[in-house]
# Entry
Amino acid sequence: TACIGCPRAPSPSTSTAIGAACRSIHKNCQKVIRDLVEVGPVRTESEGTRVTVEEGFDASAVRLVGKVSGDPPFKGFLRHHGWKALSVKLTPPPAEQDPAIITPAEVELK
# Structure
């Protein structure tokens, strides 16, 4: 089937080339992330283990799913241990640079 904005469906050879390019980009992105960010689990228990989520838990670190009602402590099964950044190895920008800028605009002068 054609995708939005495409007049016709891509040919199998085009799809294969796009898939290969995406896999290459994904592999390179993974390497950069591994080089710059050390990740670790949010919860250290094995997935499938019965766990207790205590009062005052960080809702940005633990998502409750299923039949959620009442107040903590909550008891349930760990379905995914989550991921968090243990360390980030980025060089801070110079003091005069806006830290919100990811890539500057480029202006060609002629």
The mean pLDDT is 88. DSSP finds one helix and four strands in the chain.
